[in-house]
Specification:
Length: 735
């Protein structure tokens, strides 16, 4: 397999197609995608084409039909019956816009080229710059806007989408994610019909529990994983969002994406620039998995902190001990994970509190001092223990929140988000509240928390950053009364400022985005975080469904997936350890368990699994995903695989999801291999009394992709070890 450096170098060498066009014709290209716009000076910016890479001749001929092209950024006021991307009220009360192109600028970056279309209203000194950033090493184009004016009075922004994309009507299907706490990232697929489809979030803090700000459009009918034309879109924003798909009486499905404008009217003063979040777009001819591969490559190179650095195998203390933290127990868990080959131990909630000890979820958030009653040797002692066991140490914090039972709240009640003249609304534990990140003092407090920990304990390698509450009552003690509608936007501006400050000072620190589980799986968050916690639900069977959906937009390197106890703490389901391991190994492998409760045989199975995961880790975390059989198709099995960039190594996963007598499961055809290369098969995490028939055998990539391998439905084990669960992980390598 190539080194990471060679892979990066190879991708940089991919040529980007450029040639001379007239000034009013814009061609935005990635290695395999093309976006065409008409930007005639003094006229409206128009969308002409987005899709597969075009030849020079095709581009010229497509522009012949530009007079029929729709607006590239629809505006309200002169076409009121249609949906709009931008709607405003000028200082004099006028609610119309008529923007025309003034200029087009090109900005060349290290691995990108950005096209800026500058527009001005025909009457008012009101301006919108539309940006299109095309990457040279990934098939993604990011688009966003900057809005500003020079009017005498403030302009109210009533709707301010990042982007608009018209999608030609036909047999178009939509794939998107939905769910709830403990059931995040569920896949939904449906045909687009007449009317309006809205996907939104109004949580205020976390934005990916109940829905996701990412979608895929399958243009050729029912979605297929590895063939068919697909447009993917991902809004890169950490706050409230709204995706709208309006299928009206025209030839298009009209797709809009941006900040959710509900209760967020923005009063824009003269000279201030309002920047909308990026919408990332990709096009693939290789189905849903092809679009996923585009997003994954872009994310690892540009949108995830340390996206090309392999992640450590860790043990997190939460499900092992919950709040029952003590020095001896932490040392025991460190010793256990080290003995199994783990590389990192993370101490979760329950380690802090002075006047109010943190023994449950009702107190102490905000009082970030070590509880020496639990940890008499403090963090220094834990770091010494980690060094003794030759592993790294991490710690849990929830910096955006407080409890009303805390010294912080007693000292700074004005820092809490609350409604004027209304009773304070509390969350988790009956006492949890959200700090107002629009307030610079709160931003400083959160930065100082992280800075203080890292300054005093520079040995900390990893921070688990949690957020367990929504904004449930609207009100800011910091914002002016006339700007209360700015709260949701200013909260996330403050959040981003804090993250930027932390990353500037601690660029190598590993940080996980945990938000009551999978509440912050979003590319507005990930530039500052290395990974996210997919869900608080660690049940292996349900995780197959959640991780499948999440993989549509996020690579395995960002998806924390842990081996937990049985019966499972969330579902009470009992699943064999082998199955739990095989599911967890398809993401960033970790453990969420009390090792001292495991048998010696279970520890040995985990030790071997961790050893084998380290071998396949570069393929899983940096390779290309190919989803093969979906658990959502109800075929009784789910299967996917990862393939390295040289197509010399691959990891194949197979999980049985149902168990019946006289069951008939499909034989799974592989994908992504080199048809002419010969692959030797090795089973990982084997528990069977005898090897699989194809163990150690070699097959051509052509055979494996045309026929697949016949996977036994059950494990051949001693009678007392039999169960209704079975799973397989196969390692394929070119000899």
């Amino acid at each position: 397999m190539k080194t990471i450096e060679k892979v990066l170098f190879a991708l940089v060498l991919i040529p980007v197609f450029t040639f001379s066009l007239s000034a009013n014709k814009i061609c935005v290209t990635t290695p395999n995608n093309t976006l065409l716009l008409s930007a005639e000076e003094g006229s409206e910016l128009k969308f002409v084409y987005y899709g597969d890479k075009l030849s020079e001749g095709d581009i010229e001929n497509i522009f012949c039909n530009e007079k029929y092209a729709p607006a590239a950024y629809p505006l309200y006021g002169m076409n009121c019956q249609g949906e709009s991307a931008l709607a405003v009220k000028h200082g004099d009360g006028n609610m119309t816009l008529q923007m025309v192109v003034m200029d087009v600028e090109k900005i060349t970056g290290e691995n990108s080229e950005t096209t800026v279309v500058k527009m001005k209203d025909k009457v008012f000194p009101f301006y919108v710059n539309v940006f299109y950033k095309a990457y040279t090493d990934a098939d993604v184009i990011e688009t966003w806007t900057e809005i500003f004016h020079h009017e005498k009075k403030n302009v109210e922004l009533n709707n301010f989408a990042s982007a608009y994309l018209p999608i030609r009507r036909g047999d178009v299907w939509l794939s998107y994610l939905y769910g709830s706490w403990g059931n995040e990232g569920r896949l939904m697929q449906e045909p687009l019909k007449a009317g309006m489809k809205v996907i939104k979030n109004k949580d205020g803090v976390r934005n990916s529990h109940t829905s996701h700000a990412e979608v895929m459009f399958s243009l050729d009918g029912r979605p297929q994983e590895n063939h068919g034309n697909v447009v993917g879109a991902a809004l890169c924003y950490s706050g409230n969002y709204k995706l709208r798909i309006d299928t009206d009486d025209s030839e298009y499905h009209h797709f809009f994406a941006g900040i959710n404008e509900e209760n967020s009217t923005y009063s824009l003063p003269k000279g201030e620039v309002f920047r909308t979040p990026e919408l990332a777009l990709t096009f693939s001819r290789e189905g849903l998995s092809g679009a996923s591969r585009h997003f994954h490559t872009w994310a690892r190179f540009h949108k995830i902190a340390h996206g090309t650095t392999l992640r450590k195998v860790l043990l997190n203390s939460w499900e092992g001990v919950y709040f029952d933290i003590d020095q001896e127990g932490m040392d025991q868990m460190m010793n256990d994970i080290a003995s199994m080959g783990g590389e990192l131990f993370v101490m979760d909630d329950g380690w802090f509190g002075g006047k109010y000890p943190r023994n449950n979820d009702t107190s102490s958030l905000g009082d970030w001092v070590v509880d020496t009653r639990k940890l008499p040797q403090g963090i220094e002692g834990l770091l010494a223990d980690a060094e003794k066991h030759k592993i790294k140490f991490g710690i849990w914090i929830e910096p955006e929140m407080a409890n009303t039972v805390s010294e912080l709240f007693e000292k700074h009640p004005e820092w809490v988000i609350e409604s004027d003249q209304r009773p304070l609304v509390t969350g988790r534990g009956g006492t949890q509240v959200v700090l107002d990140l629009s307030n610079p003092e709160v931003q400083d407090f959160i930065f100082d928390l992280v800075d203080g920990l890292m300054t005093k304990y520079p040995g900390i390698d990893y921070i688990k950053w949690d957020a367990n509450m929504s904004i449930t009552n609207h009100g800011s003690n910091y914002l002016d009364k006339s700007k209360q509608s700015h709260l949701y936007i200013e909260y996330h501006r403050g959040f981003e400022k804090v993250c930027q400050r932390i990353r500037e000072k601690y660029p190598q620190l590993t940080i996980q985005a945990c938000a009551s589980g999978g509440g912050r799986a979003n590319y507005g968050v990930m530039p500052y975080f290395d990974e996210f916690w997919v869900s608080d639900n660690t049940d292996a069977l349900q995780r197959i469904y959640m991780q499948w959906g999440t993989s549509y937009f996020f690579p395995a390197i960002a998806m924390a997936s842990h081996i937990s106890a049985t019966p499972n703490h969330q579902t009470s389901r009992s699943i064999p350890l082998k199955y739990r391991i095989d599911v967890a190994m398809s993401g960033r492998l970790g453990m969420e368990i009390q090792p001292k409760n495991m048998t010696a045989e279970e520890k040995e199975l985990c030790r071997k699994a961790i050893e084998e995961y380290k071998m396949i880790r570069p393929v899983v975390q940096l390779g290309d995903i190919y989803r093969l059989v979906s658990p959502y198709d109800d075929l009784g099995v789910a299967s996917l695989m990862y393939v390295d960039s040289d197509k010399e190594q691959a990891v194949f996963y197979w999980w049985k999801t149902e168990h019946f007598v006289n069951q008939h499961l499909p034989r799974v055809k592989m994908a992504g291999l080199d048809a002419d290369k010969i692959y030797t098969i090795r089973e990982l995490n084997r528990i069977d009394n005898k090897p699989l028939p194809f163990e150690g055998k070699s097959f051509s990539g052509r055979y494996l992709m045309s026929n697949g391998l016949e996977i036994p439905y059950n494990h051949t084990v001693d009678y007392h070890k039999k169960s209704d669960y079975s799973s397989r992980v196969l390692y394929l390598e070119v000899q």
